[in-house]
Write a structure and sequence with these properties.
By secondary structure, the chain is mostly helical. It contains five helices and no strands. It starts with a helix and ends in a 5-residue tail after the last helix.
Length: 125
């Protein structure tokens, strides 16, 4: 069993953060197997190029996972694993939202700090 959503998110984060680690990349691609090339949100997430895509594609991958879990029969031996995966991916979803908010707050704060510097040291032409 593979945690495709987590592996794809790690690949997407590598892209967004500029992490170049071929061994890690190959490890995550191996985890994804055919899902790395199959059309859909997992492949799109693995190929995300910015934070907005990362969030959008992760949400889509979670929706697909949730749909898959909801179709599983109560007697499926993999159901417990997939329910656990739903918990893990929810935690990651919350962490990703928190990081997005922290970066957005930093972006807003930079403008306030910039204005404050100019209050103390007015711009000279």
């Amino acid at each position: 069993m593979a945690c495709h959503e987590v592996a794809a998110l790690r690949l997407g984060l590598m892209n967004v953060l500029g992490i170049v680690d071929e061994a890690e990349r190959q490890h995550e691609l191996a985890e994804l197997g055919n899902a790395a090339e199959a059309p859909g949100p997992v492949r799109a997430l693995a190929q995300a190029r910015d934070f907005a895509e990362l969030g959008r594609f992760y949400d889509a991958a979670l929706a697909e996972l949730s749909s898959k879990v909801s179709r599983m029969s109560a007697g499926d031996p993999k159901l417990a694993y997939y329910r656990s995966l739903m918990i893990l991916t929810k935690k990651v979803e919350l962490d990703l939202a928190n990081q997005r908010e922290m970066l957005a707050r930093m972006y807003r704060d930079l403008e306030e700090l910039h204005d404050f510097v100019h209050e103390i040291f007015p711009a000279q032409d």
